[in-house]
Amino acid sequence: MAPGDQDMLINEDVLVVIPAYNEALSVAAVIHEVHLAAPRAAILVVDDASTDTTAAVARAAGAEVVTNVFNLGVGGAMRVGFRYALAGRFRALVQVDGDGQHDANDLPRLVAALDDKPEPAVVIGARFAGEGDYSVPRMRRWAMRLLARYLSGVAHMKLTDVTSGFRAHNRAAIELFARTYPADYLADTVESLVIAVESGGVISQVPVAMRTRLSGTPSQNARRAAMYLARVALMLLIAVFRHRAPRPAGESA
Amino acid sequence: MSGVHVIAIVAAVATIAVIVELSRRRQLREKYALIWLLIGLVMAVFAVSPGLFNHLAHSMGVKNPPDLLTVVASLFLLVVCVQFSWEFGRMEDKARLLAEEVALLRNQVDALRRDAEGELGQAREGSPPSVGSRPPS
Question: Nearest residue on chain A to B106, judged by CA atoms?
Answer without folding.
Answer: A66
